[in-house]
Amino acid sequence: MARPIWTGAITFGLVSVPVAMYSATHDHEVSFHQFEKGTSDRIRYKRINERTGKEVDYDDIVKGAEVGDGDYVMLDQEELDSVAPGRSKSLDIHRFVELADIDPLYYQKTYWLGPGSDETAKVYGLLRDAMADSGRAAVGTLVMRGKEYLTAIRPEKKLLVLQTMYFADEVRDPDEQVDSLPQRNKAKPAEMHMAQQLIDSMSGPWKPADFRDTYTDRVKDLVKAKSKGKKVKTADPAPDPTAASDLFEILRKSVEAASKRRAAAPASAASKKPATAPKKGKKPDVAGLSKAELLKLARKLDVPGRSSMSRPELEKAVRKAA
Questions:
Q1: Domain range summary for the chain, segments of one domain joined by +
Q2: What does the pLDDT read at residue 192?
Q3: Were 170 and a residue from 25, 126, 166, 228 both cysteine, which residue would form a disulfide, CB within 3.0 to 4.6 Å?
Q4: Where is the composition biased (Basic and acidic residues) (predicted)?
Q5: Kind of pairing between the strands at 90-98 and 6-12
Q6: At what angle do helices 189-201 and 247-264 cross, to 10 degrees?
């Protein structure tokens, strides 16, 4: 089993739930080292004192915060830790919110949260199940590795998932970053209709396994081929930007191409249809569905008042409507 990268406790109200945090993702890029061109000599980086030119040991390095006019306040790790006493072992919950209210723009990295021990698994399970029934996410803060993180915790099947998030002042204003954004409804009706057709023709269910990092695959092929003295076919160049005068025709051709690809798909894949409302008389198995999935099913069944229902109420209403 993997070792946790952090252990502590989720605290809300007077309740403390011991948990262990594990990485939920990993990078798969090709790892490179640096060499001097034309040689097999590795490049090394050293921590050099810019005044003396001498190398400095890592343990002798402290952090300095500039306070203006070239002046710095020096702080060591012990001083930094002192301003967050106890918090490095506490994940403090400040509010429970609707998960749909959190803009994905704020999400950073995902972690699994498991029970802190076998003895505390029951308390962990209670929190997980209560959150699943309420359909809400817990928003809190965590100090880890010398930094405070804003976090969102949500139930996901058998466990809790934690996602670190940006604070509000870390998200840039798009109006200050992006110039010349076109106003809405500037496109011709025919172009808008064709664009919507293209979106429809390329629509499908979200299946993560359908997508692959082809660039990393090509880099691996390049390394393998070059190690054997072979050549690798270069990638196609990027397409030219679509001119406004050609937009309708390009959209039309894109719709045709997408439609042909869908028609040529294997019959087994083509026969798969999106989930539909169950037929009357056949009760759906909804016990394991999330609140979002129940809401989707409730919309198909036209359940009145569904948007204001809790998860247990949704489950009951869906069973009754089906």
A1: 6-27+83-170, 187-201+243-269, 273-322
A2: 84
A3: 166
A4: 312-322
A5: parallel
A6: 20
Cα(79)–Cα(86) distance, rounded to whole angstroms? Answer: 14
Separation CA 28–CA 204 (nearest Å): 26
Tokens matching residue 240 = 């030219």
Q: What is the DSSP letter of 307?
A: G
Any idea what the Cα angle at residue 67 is, between residues 64 and 72, rounded to 5°?
35
- C-alpha radius of gyration, the chain, whole number: 27
CB within 8 A of 141, min separation 6: which ones? 91, 92, 94, 148, 149, 150, 151
Q: Which residues of 58-96 are buried (b: 16+ CB within 10 A; e: fewer)?
A: eeeeeeeeeeeeeeeeeeeeeeeeeeeeebeebbebeeb
pLDDT at position 48 is: 96
In the three-class reduction of DSSP (H, G, I as helix; E, B as strand; rest coil), residue 12 is classed as strand
Q: pLDDT tens digits for 199-242? A: 888 888 889 898 898 888 888 888 888 888 888 777 778 777 77
24: left (phi over 0), alpha (psi -120 to 50) or beta: alpha
Residues 6 or more apart from 201 whose CB is under 8 A from it?
255, 258, 259, 262
Contacts of 247 (CB under 8 A, 6+ apart): 191
CATH number for the segment(s) 6-27+83-170: 2.40.290.10
Q: Is the pLDDT of residue 274 over 70?
A: no
Strand-pair category, 147-156 with 71-75:
unpaired
Query: Would the pLDDT of 266 be above 80?
Result: no
CA atoms within 13 A of residue 90's CA, in its CB half-sphere: 13
Give 78's pLDDT tier (boundaries 50, 70, 90). confident
Residue 236: what residue type? D
d(CA 23, CA 162): 10
Q: Where are the alpha helices (DSSP H) in the chain?
A: 77-82, 121-134, 174-177, 189-201, 214-227, 247-264, 267-270, 291-300, 311-321
